[in-house]
């Protein structure tokens, strides 16, 4: 589904500015000899940008810098926590990108010299660029509410997939039947708006099937959330009495975490003791864009809507979770869509042509159980100089749908994942 969706939008944006000739090339060979584009971050946004830059213009020399040799996706990590998927199924390498002629370097980027157009790697090596794409994702606001990096080993956030995902899973397995799982959910904006509620659903699925006397308490720093009517309907149908959601106005905001005692304290002084504590902290853009001075006081990066160029450095394009791109959510699908827009804008700029008029897409699937799926979809354009929902587009799954309908949506979620991961790392 994603490939068809993305290809349509991609052709639309290329066609809109008369750039359809850009789409005909399909690079699979060695790196080019033309302008050099460096991409930092080999996740949803960065890997897409690297691949599509080469597809749009095989003459480009594209270098991707990523600290890890394997990428583990957050999408479907809640299924690992729920106990019905392996982490290996969510793990991808960079052989596919190398096959598209992208040079892949595994290193930590420690600095960016925008004036000299240099990316600085740990160890001091410097990579020159003509254009730079940054897609570093998020970083955790360590220290806020007393939650430190060491605390994450006791009360995992699991908001970056990998060892944290497995730690939370193991803690749930070790918890006795009758235990209390507490999840703390941050205020907006954060990575993947419906993600905490999908996680709650799949933890509830595990508890219902394996530890039915247990309880799940959701302490939320807001009063409403993505796809709320659908989640509430599903929880009533599947997990009645098991999940308790406490919104901001009912004292849901956690103000202090004591990871050693697995205790949290809320705004009005209520203390909650957990057997398993999943604390999802507040977040900022990935540290490298903050170090480079590209973020504003919100902690996120403002971008030029049409191109996703940094408003502060025109040769630097920032995509994915690190940006302020509302109403687009911080999702893998949006990062993938933004990266294609940025790639097309870079190719146009290097050719002295105007950037295309972009269209972005997003669909977020959430599982409430392995065979119960719901979705929210959006289509976005630049309207009056700002990114905006296209009127009349998008929407959410219907309420009151049949079990067969929810089952189909769960299978569409699997197809979406297979398609988008192939589109990015394949
Ligand atoms: C539980 C959960 C479920 C989710 N489910 C979905 C879903 O179903 N659908 C969906 O669309 N989205 C989902 N998301 C959101 C999705 O994971 C993110 O929106 C997406 O990963 C953002 O892409 P990105 O490129 O901005 O960042 P990432 O994909 O995180 O990639 C960033 C990369 O940059 C690298 N990096 C960062 N800094 C440096 C540096 N200085 N040097 C070298 N490398 C660096 C990192 O190692 C990382 O590989 C989910 C998120 C969570 C937490």
* Small molecules bound in the structure, each named once: flavin-adenine dinucleotide
CATH architecture of the largest domain: 3-Layer(bba) Sandwich
Low-confidence stretches: 1-27
CATH topology of the largest domain: FAD/NAD(P)-binding domain
InterPro entries: FAD/NAD-bd_sf, FAD/NAD-binding_dom, FAD/NAD-linked_Rdtase_dimer_sf, FCSD_central, FlavoCytC_S_DH_flav-bd, FlavoCytC_S_DH_flav-bd_sf, SQRD, TAT_signal
Organism: Paramagnetospirillum caucaseum
GO molecular function: flavin adenine dinucleotide binding; oxidoreductase activity
Protein name: Sulfide dehydrogenase (Flavocytochrome), flavoprotein subunit
Main features:
single chain; 426 residues; alpha/beta; FAD/NAD(P)-binding domain; 2 domains; 5-stranded parallel beta sheet; 4-stranded parallel beta sheet; binds flavin-adenine dinucleotide
């Amino acid at each position: 589904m994603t490939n068809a969706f993305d290809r349509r939008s991609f052709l639309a944006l290329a066609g809109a500015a008369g750039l359809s000739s850009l789409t005909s090339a399909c690079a699979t060979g060695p790196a080019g000899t033309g302008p050099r584009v460096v991409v930092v971050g080999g996740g949803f946004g960065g890997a897409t940008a690297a691949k599509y830059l080469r597809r749009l213009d095989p003459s480009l020399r594209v270098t991707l810098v990523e600290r890890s040799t394997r990428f583990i996706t957050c999408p479907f990590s809640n299924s690992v926590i729920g106990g019905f998927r392996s982490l290996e199924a969510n793990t991808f390498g960079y052989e596919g990108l190398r096959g598209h002629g992208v040079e892949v370097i595994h290193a930590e980027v420690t600095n960016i010299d925008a004036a000299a157009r240099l990316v600085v790697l740990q160890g001091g090596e410097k990579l020159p660029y003509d254009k730079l794409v940054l897609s570093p994702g998020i970083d955790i606001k360590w220290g806020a509410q007393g939650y430190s990096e060491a605390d994450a080993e006791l009360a995992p956030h699991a908001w970056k997939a990998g060892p944290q995902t497995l730690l939370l899973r193991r803690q749930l397995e070790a918890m006795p039947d009758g235990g209390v799982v507490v999840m703390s959910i941050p205020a907006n904006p954060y990575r993947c708006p419906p993600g905490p509620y999908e996680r709650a659903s799949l933890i509830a699925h595990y508890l219902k099937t394996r530890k039915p006397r247990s309880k799940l308490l959701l302490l939320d720093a807001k009063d409403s959330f993505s796809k709320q009517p659908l989640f509430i309907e599903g929880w009533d149908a599947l997990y009645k009495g098991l999940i308790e959601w406490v919104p901001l106005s009912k004292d849901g905001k956690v103000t202090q975490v004591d990871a050693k005692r697995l205790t949290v304290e809320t705004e009005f002084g209520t203390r909650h003791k957990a057997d398993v504590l999943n604390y999802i902290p507040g977040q900022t853009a990935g540290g490298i864009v903050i170090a480079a001075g590209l973020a504003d006081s919100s902690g996120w990066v403002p971008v030029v809507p049409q191109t996703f160029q940094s408003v502060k450095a025109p040769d630097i394009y920032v995509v994915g979770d690190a940006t302020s791109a509302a109403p687009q959510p911080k999702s893998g699908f949006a990062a993938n869509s933004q990266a294609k827009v940025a790639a097309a804008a870079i190719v146009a700029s290097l050719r002295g042509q105007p950037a295309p008029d972009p269209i972005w897409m997003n669909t977020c699937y959430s599982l409430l159980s392995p065979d119960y799926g719901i979705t929210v979809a959006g289509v976005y354009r630049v309207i009056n100089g700002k990114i905006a929902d296209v009127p009349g587009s998008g929407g959410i799954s219907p309420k009151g749908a049949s079990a067969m309908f929810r089952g189909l949506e769960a299978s569409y979620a699997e197809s979406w994942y297979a398609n988008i991961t192939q589109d990015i790392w394949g």
